[in-house]
Amino acid sequence: MAKASKYVSKQPDENGVIAWTDEENQIWSELVARQLACIEGKACDEYLAGLEKINLPKDRIPQLSELNEALAKETGWQVAPVPALIDFDEFFRLLANKQFPVATFIRSREEFDYLQEPDIFHEIFGHCAMLTNPAFAEFTHKYGQLGYAAEKKDRVYLARLYWFTVEFGLMQTEQGLRIYGGGVLSSPGETQYVYSDKPEINPLNVLDVLRTPYRIDIMQPVYYTINSINDLFEISKMDIMSQVEQAKELGLFEPKFPPKEKLAS
């Protein structure tokens, strides 16, 4: 999380307003239009209801104050402007205080299809709608509290729980497989990939998730499903840190992906 980014977040003015350029608003508009078409019939109902609640603009990047008004009304959450990349300590501190970090920059046209660091499109389109859901919001809050109190070596395990739920979580519904994870919802490639026969899709078991390695720069070889968004609320009430201890004793599963190639020095 601490590696450098070529992007620089925009600073809000004294009224909390960020001045976006016409080109940046245009990129947002194109990203939203493409992804709304892509997730049709694939996003979970809670996410779609959340998009309506935050009243997501399609023609311009929303101001954070607009999102804060909607989130405060639904779950008491807020969004907080942050630099392109923040460390784990700040990330957990924000979540523990019901503040979702939003990097205030948008990707360039050159990286329109994919960029590694989370931009404002990923954070808002991918995550903010779900934060209007009380069960999801409570899970994220509890996760932040756990992470903020945890030791560094335990945070690595907790990161996997976040990765396979908030970022890449899927849900089995009566209508079929649906997406609630922001990393999938904001990615056209990953949205399609989930419905191919390539990834392994397993029911979520917290201990299994804590033991599953992942890479951020590839399509996920494995996903975990919940049966209802309330499953996350139930997980938030579990003694997750005792599961972390168990995971440490049992060790990690064998990765289902090749090791990352080292760059020649």
Helical element count?
12
Name the assembly state: single chain
Distance between the termini: 21 Å
Task: Sum up the overall morphology in one term.
Answer: globular
The H-and-E topology, N to C, reads as HHHEHEHHHEEHHEHEHH
Alpha carbon gyration radius: 18 Å
Mean pLDDT equals: 95
Question: Could you name the ranges where pLDDT drops below 50 across 5 or more consecutive residues?
Answer: none
The strand line-up of the biggest sheet is 4-3-6-5
Judged by helices, strands and strand pairing, the structural class is alpha/beta
What's the total count of β strands?
6
Helix percent reads 40-55%
| Main pleated-sheet profile | 4 strands, mixed
Share of residues in strands: 5-15%
Describe this structure as you would to a colleague:
This protein is an alpha/beta fold. The protein has helices spanning 22-38, 45-54, 64-74, 88-96, 120-128, 134-149, 152-167, 182-185, 188-194, 206-210, 230-236, 240-250, and strands at residues 78-82, 99-103, 170-173, 176-179, 200-203, 222-226. The chain has a 4-stranded mixed beta sheet. A two-stranded parallel sheet has the order 1-2. The mean pLDDT is 95. Its cofactor is Fe(2+). Pathway: Amino-acid degradation; L-phenylalanine degradation; acetoacetate and fumarate from L-phenylalanine: step 1/6.
Quick description:
It is an enzyme of class 1 (oxidoreductase). Helix content is 46%, strand content 10%.
Notable characteristics:
265 residues, alpha/beta, 4-stranded mixed sheet, two-stranded parallel ribbon, 6 strands, 46% helix, 10% strand, ArAA_hydroxylase_Fe/CU_BS, ArAA_hydroxylase, Aromatic-AA_hydroxylase_C
